[in-house]
Amino acid sequence: MKPYLRSRHREQIHFHLRLRVLSIIIACGFSLLFLQLVHLQIFAGTTFRSLSDRNRIRLLRLQAPRGLVFDRHNNILVDNRPSFTVSIIPGEASNPAATLQKLRRFLEFDEQEAQRKLEAARNAPFSQIAVAYDVSLEQAAAIEECSLELPGITITAEPCRRFPLLKGAAHVLGYLGEIAPREHERLADKGYVIGDYIGKAGLELVAEEWLHGESGGMQVQVYADGHPQIELDETGNPSVRIDSAGRELLTLGKKVPKAGNVVRLTIDADIQLAAEAAMGSYDGAIVVMGAETGAIRALVSRPSFDPNSFVSPGRNAERLEVLNDPRHPLLNRALQAYSPGSTFKIVTAYAALAEGIVSPDTKVYCSGSFTLGRKFRCWKDTGHGSLNVVQALAYSCDVFFYTMAMELGIERLEHYARLFGLGAATGIELPGEMKGLIPSPEWKQKTFKRPADQKWFLGETVIAGIGQGYTLATPLQLTCAIATIVNGGRLVTPYLIERVETPQSDKVLLERAPAQRHALNDSAALDLIQEGLKQAVVSRQPFFGTAWRAKNDTVSILGKTGTAQVAAFKERADTAKELEQIPYELRDHAWFASIIDGPDEPYAVVVFCEHSGHASESAVLVTLELATRIAEGAGTIASTETAQEGHST
């Protein structure tokens, strides 16, 4: 055989050999696959079919408990309680809309709102969409029993905000609400999801970044015929419950939620409750503040509301009643601006003394009216006779302060009013604070459109001297103003948040120190004004001081009354002799700005009673009751009905 023929023959032999080996390998591979298929289908088919049918992996979100809020004595003001939240996972419900309709058999909820949430989460079919919050244990149990009819419905135990003081300090603490779409867009990067509750007002709003915490999650194995539920143990640690058949469900992964930080306030719960009780049935506000530090010890606004109604769906009717109440209970009246009335005479008196317009011995004669083109009446028609600045403050003589205002002029009056902190926000942490108004010719020129209205008249200066006309101030501003009389002329910045700590209290994140600036330098003028405020309470000759009802043997009180007209005499048909004969909205506002003894420093206290008539018959009596309660140590938080409900920390 020729050489090239032998070579071709060997190549053919080698080719057939490789082909045979390859065929054997392929046959072995197919045999292994066949054997595996037989194993899966015949020997292990039942097991794997069962696991496929009965097991799924689900990601569950664990809501972080919001941070706790304490008063200055470590009394709880806001905490959390366990609650049940019903949610739907759209990806696990073949027909989410039909499932929601079935769910209505067990509880009431806003189906349109639930549908809106489902639409918003259409790109995240396996996210938990909260449908109803804070459902009862009975409702949760009924849903659990019928879980086969409700595919995709889950029940989770979550912390729910609780306000143990109920309506007490509601405008300080604020309330929560479900996150709005725009808020979610702004906060999504910080871990917020649709259905979260966030602060909407008060402290809950301004301290949201500290209180919110960081939510966690669990990756759990769940059964198609049973719905896992998250439970919280005694320490608040979440775990997965066994299913309805008693089988323990597997937790594949878990991120423990991080609770919000602890916020400690300057509020004194005892004094807050005493102020709430002293306010009685009046609408209005009370502010109690440390005169030296600016620390707010109590802040009351009436009418009030129960913040618990904003986190409990079962109290929808109560919440709607609050929202539709024409008296506007959500309005924090301590931060709203009203005519300050005669409490403003403190400013006029200081300005006149500091400018040398009057001395302690200067006297002005009050005949019952002051003439400037027309007559401006004193509240005492028969007149006070001759009196000095101390007596003018004690008897609240209008004619004396008409005269001082004319001598000062509106520009100097405006200057001194601003030294007392009026016409500008105080800087307290709460939202919605008004600046008030200190009028001036320049302000009037900018404010009014008609040239005839832009002119400043001397008569407007006259009434500005007694806090009437355009002048507006908030109860909180007047609290800071009255504090300057006893703290050496320092204008303090009121504050509520004393300290923010981590949940374990091992790290201080924020600590506030009192802030103040020296505003009033004439100490002799401050001493005279203080004497005038004292005489307003104790004087009996030749006249009774306007705050004479505050005199008592238990606690020292000095202060200035104010009765602010809210309507002209003609408008309110002033022929009426009794307060009840005047329409409520036309009745005067009553003020009493005072200094009372506190346990650790003097307290600046302002009581504002809306449409309550003369100050001496309402605001002064409220102050007396509050001061007496504080002096006697009454109204302790432990004795209140709210505290008896107990709380978790």
Automatic annotation (TrEMBL):
GO terms for cellular component: plasma membrane. It is found in: Cell membrane; Membrane. One of its GO terms (molecular function) is peptidoglycan L,D-transpeptidase activity. The keyword Protease applies. One of its GO terms (biological process) is cell wall organization. Signal peptide: none annotated. Residues 284-615 form the Penicillin-binding protein transpeptidase domain. The keyword Transmembrane applies. Its main location: membrane. This is Penicillin-binding protein 2. It comes from Abyssobacteria bacterium (strain SURF_5).
